[in-house]
Amino acid sequence: MDVGIVGSTGYGGVELYRLLSNHPNVDGCILYSSSLEGSSYAEQYPHLSGLSHESVKPIMIEEMQQLDFVFLAVPSGVSKELAQKLMGKKAKVIDLSGDLRLKVPGEYEEWYKGESAPQDVLGKAVYGLTEINRHAIREAELIANPGCFPTATLLGLAPLYQQDLIDPHSLIIDAKTGLSGAGRKASQSSHFAETQENLRIYKVHQHQHTPEIEQQLKEWSSEAGPITFTTHLIPMTRGIMVTMYADLKDSCTTEQLHTRYQSFYEKHPFVRIRPVGQFPGTKEVFGTNFCDLSIKADPRTNRVTIVSVIDNLVKGAAGQAVQNMNVMLGLDETTGLHHYPIYP
Ligand SMILES: NC(=O)C1=CN([C@@H]2O[C@H](COP(=O)(O)OP(=O)(O)OC[C@H]3O[C@@H](n4cnc5c(N)ncnc54)[C@H](OP(=O)(O)O)[C@@H]3O)[C@@H](O)[C@H]2O)C=CC1
Ligand SMILES: CC(=O)N[C@@H](CCC(=O)OP(=O)(O)O)C(=O)O
């Protein structure tokens, strides 16, 4: 099977290359770039010296259409045009950007400040949160791979929403991310001198993942409304921790909630429910496709705290994209994704 990566010189692209070049069903992994065509990939990424002999090609739509899978690891705004050109051909397309996730008219324009993808493209795109949408993903030709924060958040909340255990109006979502989430093109906000020894809140009440989370919560609960979601930048390379707080509808013990989470995720190899009283750190999923979850009820306040950690570049981007490819191919969804976390 031959696959292509567009935006191969970015962080999402190089992470896709790491995973796909070790995938047993992938014979050829073709690298496309809008900026570095002709150069060798190992020149661009010296950590691949002696390992990668690929050179980077210009974007070639007709060639890409004939591949088995094309992964779009380009910025929002760019993906929708490529997806449109690739649609209806041989290649199945997995888009890592935010272009194809929002279905409610007007929301993309409001949060991404650009024109939305055409309706026929949006209509074909299946939301690729694998654990929740596996059946639709299996039949899909075009996947809108979820955002990194929505992945961690929605996996943390799914059992509570689907089992009607919390009051949606009380929900607060507090997220922290490493710097690679901002992509390779370092901006002022990811400058070493601005970020080292610093903790910053950003995009307050304006984060583009807000409507993506709301869209899924509304599918789960008619009571779901606007959410409070805040993001913080912390001085580490990879990793996301999302801490969520909500009022329980009825009193519940930690042990009862823990049992519900365990049975909800029983058949999902990448979601690990931590033992009662143990909370995950981002390092414990580093470099892997795991999402680790903990839950604890507070009998004093009748609130619950949920903690979810992922590696933003793996479960939050490239890893989930490969997991989705596996589902679309009818393979075991862990194929090519059997990594232990890098620790310490
Ligand atoms: N970083 C993360 O943790 C996550 C990222 N994402 C999404 O994945 C996508 C890729 O992100 P990431 O790799 O981090 O970003 P980077 O900025 O690291 O890479 C994006 C790449 O896209 C290509 N590109 C940029 N502009 C254009 C253009 N006008 N036309 C064609 N290609 C272009 C460039 O590659 P080249 O020069 O080779 O063409 C660039 O290196 C984005 O949509 C991002 O939002 C989603 C979840 C998590
Ligand atoms: C640290 C940092 O800036 N992270 C980015 C991650 C978002 C992203 O990857 O963009 P999509 O909308 O395509 O999912 C952010 O918070 O905007």
From TrEMBL:
**What keywords are annotated for this sequence in UniProt?**
Oxidoreductase
Q: Does the keyword Oxidoreductase apply?
A: yes
Instruction: Note the superkingdom of the native organism.
Output: Bacteria
Enzyme Commission number, as recorded? 1.2.1.38
Task: Name the chain's protein.
Answer: N-acetyl-gamma-glutamyl-phosphate reductase
**Species name for this entry?**
Rossellomorea vietnamensis
